[in-house]
Amino acid sequence: MTNSGLYLSAIGVNLEENSGPKKGVREMCNTLETAVGCGVNHFDLAPHYGDSRGAVEEIFGRALQRFSNLREDLVISARAGLGTQSGLMPGFGSRKCLMTSLDSTLSRTKLECVDVFYAHRYDAFTPIEETASALDSIARQGKALYVGLSGYAPAMVRRVAAILRDLGTPLSVCRVTYSMLHRWPEDGLLDVLADERIGCVADGTLDVTFGPYPDCSRKEVERLQTRLSRISLRRGQSSRQCALSWVLRQPSVASALVALPDSDDLLEYCAAVHKTSFAEEELVSVDGCFPEVHRS
C-alpha cells in the first residue's frame, strides 16, 4: 500500500457468495492453510452476492476459528452497497446500508472488525458526503481498520478521498475490475490512485482466461485464447499466470483477486507473482490479442 502501512499479499482470495456452497468448513480450512503457506494473507468477502446470503461469511468465520492464531496476520476485507442488500431498498450508499451491512458481516463471521471495508459502487441518490462520513464513522468505531471504495469512477474517487482526508480518515484502497480484457482503469483511474497514493485491488483478473467475451463469436474467443497461450508459453507461464502477472506489473496494483480456488490452483496463481516484468514486445503482443471493443 502507499498512504498507509497496510500490506496486502500480491494474490488475494475473492470469497464470492455464490462459491460458498461449493466449499464446506473443511474445504475452506484447506484453502486457508494452503494460502497462508504460500504467502497469501488477503481474503475478500462478498457478503450478499448469490442466492445463499451470508453463507460464505459463516463458513469462512467458522474455518477461521480453527486458525485463530492466524488472525493478526490476515487482511480480511468486506464491502457493502449495490447488490449487498436484501430486497429492493434504495440508498445502497447510505449510512444505514453501509453500517448495518457491516454489522451483519461481523455477526456472521464472529469477527470484531474487518481490516478493510469498501463502499461498493457510487449511489447517485445518496449524498457522497454521507457515504464518506459513514466510512469515517466505521473506522472511528473500530469496525474497520482501513476504508476504501469499490467500483468508483476516477472523479468520484478524488472527491471521496478529499472528503475523507478532511475528516482525518484516509482513503487507503480502491477495488476495481481490471484485466487484459477490461482496461477501463487505465483511462484515468490508475493515475488518480497513483496521485492520491491509494492502493489498487484488482478483481476479475482472470476474466481473460475464463470469459465471458461479449460480442465475440466462439471462433474469435478460441483464436484469442490460442494467441494468449502462445505468449504465455514463451514466458514460461500458463495463460492464467500471465494474466495475473500482467495486472500485477502496474505499480498501483497492490493485490490481484482470484475466485475461491482449489489448493493446486492457488499454488499456480502464487507463482505468477515472481514474473511481473514484461518486455515491450510482450506488451504489444498482449494488446494485439484483444479487439478494441474489449479495451474500455
UniProtKB/TrEMBL annotation:
Q: Which Gene3D superfamilies would you find in this protein's record?
A: NADP-dependent oxidoreductase domain
Among the Pfam families in the record, one is: Aldo_ket_red
Provide the alphabetized UniProt keywords. NADP, Oxidoreductase
Classify the source by domain of life: Bacteria
Q: List, for all copies, the residue spans of the domain called NADP-dependent oxidoreductase.
A: 28-288
User: PANTHER family in the record, alphabetically?
Assistant: HYPERKINETIC, ISOFORM M (PTHR43150), L-GLYCERALDEHYDE 3-PHOSPHATE REDUCTASE (PTHR43150:SF4)
Per the similarity annotation, which family is this?
A: Belongs to the shaker potassium channel beta subunit family.
State the name under which the record lists this protein. Answer: L-glyceraldehyde 3-phosphate reductase
